[in-house]
C-alpha cells in the first residue's frame, strides 16, 4: 500500500512522518480558508478586475492551497 502523499509542497510518507503530514495539511487548510475569506470580501467590481467570478473563489483557493 502506498502511504506517500504528493503535494505542491513535496512528498511526505505517512508512515515515517505522520506529525509533519498533519502539520502540512493544516497549513494547506489555513491557506485555503484565508484565500476564500480574502477573495469573498472583495467587491464584485474588484473581482471582475481580477477576472474572477464569485463562483470561482473556492476553486482558486483550492488550487492555491493544494496545487493545481
From TrEMBL:
Residues 25-58 form the YjiS-like domain. It comes from the Bacteria. Pfam families: YjiS-like (PF06568). It comes from Aliiruegeria haliotis. InterPro entries: YjiS-like (IPR009506). This is Uncharacterized protein DUF1127.
Amino acid at each position: 500500500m502506498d502511504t506517500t502523499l504528493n503535494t505542491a509542497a513535496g512528498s511526505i510518507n505517512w508512515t515515517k512522518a505522520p506529525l509533519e503530514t498533519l502539520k502540512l495539511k493544516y497549513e494547506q487548510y489555513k491557506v485555503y480558508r484565508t484565500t476564500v475569506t480574502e477573495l469573498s470580501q472583495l467587491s464584485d467590481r474588484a473581482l471582475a478586475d481580477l477576472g474572477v467570478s464569485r463562483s470561482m473563489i473556492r476553486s482558486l483557493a483550492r488550487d492555491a492551497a493544494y496545487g493545481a
